[in-house]
């Protein structure tokens, strides 16, 4: 592989190009790239953008190391060795695209287009390099569609059935809160720019409480840490309601005017005295009582919920239960009160213009859940499933590393009769299984436009440098494939800049001022400061729905409840063999599996670790530094033990998501996770998982 050594002419003038961080992170920072002589010298936070505040996380402040990484993919590759080994030869674009188009046409003619499946997620969050031309291509082809559930669907459904949409507080207003519950979020690692506002509030006297099974760097910096068992958040929320009733801390007027189903929820909450929740959550009863006293008395009270708490069987219900809390105390009356899980529902994106569902023209295609790709790749044609998967086109995702139960996923990807094309910047675990690997540009090399799920601005990303080597944007690759498949050119001809311009264009006009985006790189959406001060929730009833008639109509519980995990520690037969709960939250210096191959960041994380509480370690004769075997019926994961109070008793933390080939023994955390689905939204249950751990001093790994 060619080593790229960018050398800029030191005498050439520098320019600054405005952009947006493309990564799957709520912060969506505004970037400024300094360019000299066509070479990107550095990437910094745009000081003019309030939510970025001129600060980037460590990962993206080293972005040029990723862009000019010696292992960047620079030309198309065709597999020459067995799948999974990563042996490839260089081919030209023409040859690669012609062969891919011919293979897809053959499969579509023989087995129907639904035997072809796209697999993509949020390698870039851009609306253009995400699902624009790619979606048009698969719509026009009539391929299977992908249910993009792998991150947030349980929480999304929970919010939609309570508040009405993915909406909530504006992040900047947390600076004025008096109590902040950081719930299921390691904000310092994964929502740094929210944490800046929480710090301002703290300096102003606010109290910060972290609710997380792991004693994270965020938990350490809060005044209090409630280290509950994974998957018990709804029990905690119901007990808080119980105490708000007992303490007479409710805002009866707000409940009366702006909520639905209080009588029924009240009855349910009364079944959850703090003693009961304390047993379920594994926390002291006094901690629950004191949290309820604070929540009922310290106004304005704000909750920053994050997706970490919805990756369990009852994740959707848990989000529903927590999302009910602000209405009970009338927290929404103040702009610094309420809850935020995601702000993405407020953006008027014109997805139909970008993705052209009209190109489907005919029967709706089958929809496959990305969480169960492991099982689905191993299925035969059947009336229930439809045609066996014969071709997979992967972009913006690394499923062999990030999808649950990876032994099954890798087995599926290793099928000799599966035709796999991977659009990538790097030779990932997934790319190792491809028939063709096509080199994709990075954010510094292409146009894009971004919404955010943590703030309320739109950001434009202009290319700062020319594409490296023969890399092409996803859009350009799908345009070319469409041409070679003989699809009508008019549906694919929009340029990337034109796609950016149409992303927020509505019948009533442009929702954002594109001239302003071109000029300063970001634009703020108009919106209300305290969106639900007077009610007006975007639910069918216009109220905060404690009781959801829509859920009841689907045969589900209309009220939120605590659902125990599929795999529960304690007195279950499964727990006899696998007594420890296993969670695999993000490592601070990686973003899902992105950045694992950037040496300077991997050196900070050192190696894959398993945090284990001193009691659990002692019971197994494990000391820090031991290579351990973490296992259950689905697989074995090898990593280094770190005996640490960051783990609570009974719960072990395996920080994710390493590339399998860079971990010990070619495995990662998803060797252990299951393909079961959440109560709402068909999401994954990464943190609903039991394991056992053994030291493995003799064998090594
Ligand atoms: N540095 C970094 N930043 C990231 C990511 C990353 O991988 N690295 N990932 C990005 C992505 S894709 C997303 S979706 C977002 C949000 O990503 P999240 O996955 O929400 O990440 P965190 O905010 O770190 O929250 C996870 C926290 O939830 C805790 N947790 C696990 N189970 C439970 C539970 O049952 N209840 C409660 N209360 N807490 C639990 C974990 O211990 C962890 O500290 O962050 C994004 N930002
Ligand atoms: N055990 C466990 N598993 C998890 C999680 C966990 O907490 N624990 N987190 C889950 C969550 S929240 C999520 S969101 C998923 C994330 O899963 P993915 O969305 O698959 O995220 P990444 O692993 O970051 O992989 C993204 C890939 O896209 C590539 N990429 C980036 N930009 C572009 C581009 O412009 N074009 C092309 N072609 N490729 C590009 C990157 O190089 C990278 O390899 O993982 C999930 N998996
Ligand atoms: S990953 Fe998040 S914090 Fe880091 S630069 Fe991107 S948006 Fe900002
Ligand atoms: Mo995610």
Q: Can you walk through the features of this model?
A:
This protein has 25 helices and 29 strands. Helix 9 (233-246) packs antiparallel against helix 12 and helix 9 packs parallel to helix 14. It is globular. The model has no long low-confidence stretch (mean pLDDT 96). A six-stranded mixed beta sheet has the order 5-4-17-16-15-6, covered by helices on one side. Strands 24-28-25-27-26-29 form a six-stranded mixed β-barrel. By secondary structure, it is an alpha/beta fold. Molybdenum atom is lined by residues 24, 151, 307.
Secondary-structure blueprint of this entry?
Layout: E1 14-20, E2 30-36, E3 39-45, H1 58-61, H2 63-67, E4 77-79, E5 88-90, H3 93-111, E6 116-120, H4 133-141, E7 145-147, H5 153-160, E8 179-183, H6 187-190, H7 192-203, E9 207-211, H8 217-221, E10 224-226, H9 233-246, H10 252-258, E11 259-260, H11 262-270, H12 274-281, H13 285-297, E12 301-305, H14 315-328, E13 338-340, H15 351-355, E14 367-369, H16 373-377, E15 391-395, H17 399-402, H18 406-413, E16 419-424, E17 436-439, E18 448-450, E19 457-461, H19 474-484, H20 496-502, E20 505-506, E21 509-510, H21 514-520, E22 522-524, E23 544-545, H22 549-553, H23 573-577, E24 580-583, H24 599-605, E25 609-612, H25 614-619, E26 627-632, E27 635-643, E28 651-654, E29 690-695
Parallel strand pairs: 6-15, 7-14, 8-9, 8-12, 9-10, 11-23, 12-13, 15-16, 16-17, 24-28, 25-27
Antiparallel strand pairs: 1-2, 2-3, 4-5, 4-17, 18-19, 19-22, 20-21, 24-29, 25-28, 26-27, 26-29
Helix pairs in contact: 3-19, 5-14, 9-11, 9-12, 9-13, 9-14, 12-13
The structure holds ligand MGD (2 copies), iron/sulfur cluster and molybdenum atom (MO).
